[in-house]
Amino acid sequence: MIELSQLTKRYGRFTAVAGIDLTIPKGELYGLLGPNGAGKTTTMRMIAGILQPTSGTVRIAGIDIQAQPLVAKAHLGFIPDRPFVYDKLTGAEFLRFVAGLYGQGGRIIERRIDELLELFELDAWKDELTEAYSHGMRQKLIISSALVHRPDVIVVDEPMVGLDPKSARLLKDLLREFVTRGGTVLMSTHTLEIAEAMCDRIAIVHAGRIAAEGTMDALRIQTSSGDASLEELFLKLTGGLSDRELSDLFES
Amino acid sequence: MRAGLRNQRSGAGARAVLLVLLGAGFWTAVFGLAYRILRYIKGVEEIGPLLAGKMLAVALLAFAAILLLSNLVTALSTFFLAKDLDMLVAAPVDWVWLYLAKLGETLVHSSWMVVLMVVPILTAYGAVFDGGLLFPFVALAVLLPYFLLPTVIGSVATLILVNVFPARRARDLLSLVALAAAGGLVLFLRLLRPEQLARPEGYRNLLEFMSTLSAPSHPLLPSEWASGALMNWLLRIADPLPILLLWSTAGAFIVIGASLHRRLYMSGFSKSQEGNNTGGARAAWHRRLAWFLGWLPVTRREFVLKDVRVFFRDATQWSQLILLAVLLIVYVFNISALPLYTGERVPYFLVTLVVFLNQGLGGFVLSAIAARFIFPSVSLEGKQLWLLRSSPLDLRAMLWSKYWVGTIPLLILALTIGIVTNRILHAPPFMMFMSIVTTVCYTLAVGAIALGMGVLYPQFETENAAQIPTSFGGLVFMMAAVSLLAVIIVVEAIPVSEQLRAWQAGEPASPPTSLLVAVAAVFSICAVATVVPLRLGLRRLAELEA
Q1: Is B190 part of a structural domain of the chain?
Q2: Are residues A207 and A141 in the same domain?
Q3: Torsions phi, psi for B283 (to 5 deg)
Q4: Are residues A159 and A233 in the same domain?
Q5: How confident is residue B498, by pLDDT bands cut at 50, 70 and 90?
């Protein structure tokens, strides 16, 4: 379960996130949508404990991440948008290291590492340094690292970037299976079809605030949009270039 | 992000002032030293100007060797690994302009440090030999082609290497070659015993002295042309040949470099996009190390293992051990070359001085090693900080791992240097004891200061570990470490000196009260210098945002 209460992040006079309130219960896959610079990644990094909020609270599995960071983070798996790993570790060593960060090791973890590498078809690369991995392989390794310690909550920023169609499908199934088993997922994405197909509820973030939130039907009612697609809702809430503006761009 | 930028701006002013002051101090010192030496040499009858010319040629040759090594590594980055290359190669830019632009970039990046060294030296030459107002322009006209030569050679060598090896493997190889060559150069220069040049009376005749002087030289070396062109101007000799040789050779080299670039660059650039398949990393010693560290809690064990693995697999990190080995050999060689024990009894003042000099130099060597290996350790986590901050990692465990992984080898090294050099110096037992106590305390403190400063001045964007110690934070660390060393030496100086005097005079040892007070003071100072930086580092680490 993830609970955000009046979550705010300011950089000087610029407010990146402006008092977000949000509750994502167990067994729910929640999507965060918004244009570039809307505050999605900042919000997710505050939930993961990487950024410190200017004000407000984040609770993971009922635990305040600022009051008890180590206990709260033990329930969390974070998948960032850019797959930075240690170039000079092998895939297996990286997963072993991540498990170690969560205080886990031994035969159970070795089995888990083998399972995950096989699932993501990285088993042949298990003992190769990650500097030889492609972007997609690194992304799959990071996804594996977020699962190696069996978290209750997964926060995932742009999960499909760099993945081939087979791996993207695998990840979708995996996240759905994870929430079916009582896990909580918060996912940000720019791929509206994925959000529409996968998420139980969606929030559209604009200028650091939640502009609209709920299921697809609830969003349509909130925005009085009839049976509009998510793309139309998104553009209505966040603004887009008009046909006239595009025409001016090419004619000038 | 904006707050970070504002903090950076406010700190930038202070940094600039400090750097300007340090730079001015450095230039004044180099100028002062060069000026005094040249004034002395100019006064030597008959061979004065010749000697000055030879010295300039040797200095320029040493700079050329440094430039060649520096250009090798820089050219690989600018021509093959730079982030702007994808855009430039894809753009309709003529290959000649790309080549010239990247050559210029390589020249600037690899030569600026040498230029900083050359300016005060040539200013001293101009001042002593009355070079006049045009001398700076003459120097520029000489040095530009002279610096272009190693830049072209370095970029051509890199071009060929990248066509043979993948770029990342080539980078490892180049780092290794460059460092080994730099180490060899330092060793070579030291083993030449340059101090003997200052004692011409040690040579049997003028001919032998001159042959020693001309040893690292040849008429076909560009360093001879450059020094010849500069000395011709200073001595009012109308001979344009050296400067013509320099410019024509530089021009020919650029043409050769450009034609090779045209033939080989695209295939090399394409190859540089390939990954570095190392064929795995299944060394048995990693498993043995894991077994050996089995007693540690799992988080700390995995952290130590990760740090050790990353260090020994990254050529830009472990290859610095070569320089370290050279530094130590030169240091011990210098100590053993001291003319202290030639059969005569040496005054106690000199022994005290040398023993303290040893303590000071040993401490400085330790600080330099800590700057190389401990200071960068947190910065190297840069891009992976998201993982460490989002996991339930106790930051104390991380600092603990980094502190001991860096400090234990440093301590072993420090004790070895201390014991070996004190034995060479025939230091009395109490001096050996003092040396060991001081070394242990200082090493623990300097490790903590290096780690703490590394957190306070992180360099998360740097890809090459070797560049981190040369940052502003590295400079601040070196100043802090040297200041601590000075305080320790001052505290110990008087009591140790008294004990040494009594020991040399064969007097019964006085009660070592003052010595014990000094030891207690050093212990307390070092304890504070250990705890405070680690605490500050821990607090800063908790605030760091990835």
Answers
A1: yes
A2: no
A3: -60, 135
A4: yes
A5: confident
